[in-house]
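Lab meeting, action items carried over

1. Structure of the two-component assembly. Owner: GW. Status: complete.
Input record:
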Amino acid sequence: MTTKATINRLATGVPGLDEVLGGGLPEFSFNLIAGQPGCGKTTLAHQIMFALATTQRPAIYFTVLGEPPLKMLRYQQQFDYFEAEAINRSVRFVSLSDDAMSGDLDRVLKRIVEEVTAHNPGLVFVDSFRSVAFASENGGSPRTSLQLFVQQLGMLMTSWQATTFLVGEYFNETDANPVFTVADGLIWLRQSVQRNSMVRKMEIMKMRGQSTLPGLHTFRIDNAGIRVFAPAQVVAAGSAAPDAAAHGARALLGVPALDDMLGGGLPRGYSLLVAGPSGSGKSILAASFLAEGARRGETGVVAAFEQHPNRSRNPVLVDLIARGQVGLIDSREPDLSIDEIVLLILTEVRRLKASRVVLDSLSGFELALAPTFRTDFRESLLGLVTALARAGVSVLMTSELEDRYTDLRFSPYGAAFLTDAIIVQRYIEVDSRLLRVMAVVKVRASAHSNELRLYSIGDEGIRMGQMLPEQEGLLGGRPTRKLPPASSAPTDVA
Amino acid sequence: MPLKSQDGRRWRAPLGGRIPDGAHAGQVADAVAAIWREIDQALHPIIGHRGVAALYQRSLSLSAAAYPWLAMEQRGIPAAVDPAALHAALVQQTGAEAAAGGNALFHSFHQLLASLVGTSLTERLLRSVWDHSPGAAPAQDTSP
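Predicted assembly:
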């Protein structure tokens, strides 16, 4: 019978960080928070400290030669997590600047040992560690003394059962810095600038003893502090799928003839792409989808990525939002990432226990993304659709499509293959009138109509009309009357 | 001489409880020096000796507008608070003038720190010093 050491994982109190770390921060680990100036290292350290520090597990924050402590206190207290009452109770700030100025690392280490021994902290922060290294260089000590210093500090802190963070500026991550070898965890913060947009990214380059989520994770800093956006799929995995039995196997769109064409509504959990030119009624269909849900006691979420906040919305939708049956995600944050959007949507879905989601529209969505993500828009879209599918909601996405009468297109993003169902809307010219036609192009694993039918938009919304069997060439936009009127009954295909 | 406090909130002159009414300048100077040492004791672990010394110098400079005898010769940033020169300046005043100047100096310092880190954190950091003051007994170490 073996008894392995149990590694407790601490919840960092930074939203999304525990997921990215692979389940929290290992207790008694020796971690490095690295990155360039202004990327949020000190903020991350403070947020973790205020979340974890208690009178039973006090924290010591050593400031070395970086930011003057007075300034740090001045700016850090602007964040919501900062608790003035915790200071000198569960959180202790210790300035090592006088010792560090001497350039003698032994003296700095001695002070740290004294403080740690005297106060028995469960959490230790050293900020900024880079300045310790500079101090040692100025003092003329060889680089090995820094390695020795880190080695000793790491050993001391682990034995002293303190979870430790070294905060430091490192410009070059390929630098074979001895600190990187000693550290159990390496959290690298970055700012990625492209054109006029800036996106903050975090990478867990190392975390001993647990599998972290690889890659760059976007995060944002606001008054509440840091929020990390874990990958969409991970966020969605925690969602409970809406109860299909309670709502029926199909989600009706609220346009009876169209629901018939779909084979009885949209199968639950499917994503539906509504593609059509400007003014064809995509948003009206989307509103009808949510209104039909509300009529049946379901809740929904609409993510609107419009560029005109004051443009009047569909009155049906406005009413649903006002009554709280539909949640509105109307993010005007600049430079969104796909993971942030997914988190926004899923948070709202969970809050309302929603079963229907509308994304209106993909073009607006693309513009809302930071430029750095636009090059991977298809991947981002796939991530979004997959995450929503995992959450079990039925999704309706609209996509603006320039009418091209030479071919049948569904989406400028090649999004068609990502979705389970497609409805396409077109304008056609008949008898000097601009008419609209609609067809169900695809419903995965389900029978659906192949009719191309006229429809009109009135005060009550979309009304389906007849087929135009006597016309041909509808998809070319300028149909011609067929000479021998040969009518045949429409057939359903699987 | 009553001190006009600009924000008034929770501020009370720390000299109040530490010197008897009509105290002579020597008593005032001892109490002021003792309080500065307590302030240094409370703050230097957090912001360093040099950090406290810089605030001390700034407070002297601000208070010198109303009490010109508080203007001390400044020689760069000192490594730590040294109230000896202040003590020497205080004993040359009358008791009342010394007490008024001393209180003005602490008030400037309090305002300065509050402007930098906010009133709530300032109260938190200086609680041990101010709490010490209402007691009638002067600070234990009165030697300059």
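2. GW to write a short summary for the group page. Key points so far: Chain B touches chain A at residues 44-51, 55, 79, 116-118, 120-121, 124-125 (CB under 8 Å). The two ends of chain B are 25 Å apart (CA to CA).
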